[in-house]
Request: fold
Amino acid sequence: MLLLRQTTTFPGPFCRDCGLNVFRSTTAHTLAVGWLGLVSFFVFPFVVLRNVLKRRLIHRLPAPVSPAGAAVGPAKPGRSLFARPLAYFVFVPVLLLGAVVLTSWLESPGRQVGKCVTVYGSAADLEPCSSKHDGVITAVADEPGECPGGTMTAVWLRSVETTEVFCVGRG
Reply:
């Protein structure tokens, strides 16, 4: 199902309570696993939006009626959508994407200026400025020759994947 997707519909007929029950349980399931898969990840928001818009139609359904002598009555609507734990799995991709964005932002070359380093030839490691270090990153450049005057050396940081060089001055 990573490359394919599956759609399930429940045509009814439903009373209002049965319709709410089906809507809540299927929407919670969709929020939990409907975004898994290559195609589904992009289709998922539209499916959820369509379902939420169709929810208004459920409230227009007739009230439940238990036929006299029936062994089974109408379904209970059940807990609301966000009282169901499955509904919160929708936040997993949001949290993962947020973690990726935050990590790339924290490791961006420009955010390294002002940090202390220990130099090993043409490479360097970030060090706490309170410990022994060889210098401070003063600028980020595309080429070693583009470092500003007063730069001791230009290095690549071993912990940051980038093509830029870091200009190191006395610190």
The chain has two domains: 16-105, 109-169. The helical segments are 16-33, 38-59, 91-106.
